[in-house]
Design a protein that fits this description.
196 residues; mainly alpha; globular
């Protein structure tokens, strides 16, 4: 059911993805309880599907529950817990709750540094979200410094011709645009388009 839900989500059939995920969760909960890895993963996926539909209340509620269960099951220093609070932080960014989002992202980054290291895609994505948050609140100096760190890691992890690197460059180009550095914005966005 979970795999089919993912296929529905990939095809933009979010309502169907939500329904199948709920069914899978009912089965998992009845068989193993809530403190079961597959159940928590399904809960996280349900939250992602809600996010895709724009139902941020349901997404946030489910991400919060998933993070509580992950913390209980695996502890605070686990890569899966970091991923869950990263997802929760990004919902909070979408909702304009920048203070809580920053705390969660910094915590996720600290966990990822210990569990997967600094030269890992998860670490790079979290750092990228932090840079975007700083840009969103108008702290362009800190955003720029953080984006510079991101660029080095993204290049190490993906190389300079990978689609993930192109996505990062797109974010960086938008940052340059928002901060008034139009020439750099144009250069970076052109490079991003060349890769895509």
């Amino acid at each position: 059911l979970s795999n089919m839900a993912s296929i529905y989500s990939s095809n933009g059939k979010y309502k169907e993805a939500v329904e199948l995920t709920k069914k899978a969760m009912d089965i998992q909960k009845n068989l193993y309880g809530e403190k079961y890895d597959a159940y928590i993963t399904s809960l996280n996926n349900l939250a992602l599907f809600y996010k895709q539909t724009g139902d941020y209340d349901s997404a946030e509620k489910n991400f919060e529950k998933a993070s509580e269960l992950r913390k209980e099951l695996q502890g605070e220093n686990h890569a899966d817990y970091a991923t869950t609070i990263y997802n929760l932080a990004n919902i909070k960014i979408d909702r304009g709750d920048y203070i809580d989002a920053e705390k969660l992202l910094i915590k996720a980054l600290e966990i990822q540094k210990l569990t997967v290291g600094e030269n890992h895609s998860s670490y790079a994505n979290t750092l990228n979200s932090i840079a975007g948050l700083y840009s969103a609140i108008g702290n362009y100096q800190l955003a720029g410094e953080t984006y510079d760190k991101c660029r080095i890691i993204f290049e190490k992890v993906y190389g300079d011709m990978h689609p993930e690197y192109a996505t990062f460059l797109n974010n960086l180009g938008l940052f340059y645009f928002e901060s008034g550095n139009y020439d750099k914005s144009e250069d970076v966005l052109k490079k991003s388009l060349e890769i895509q």
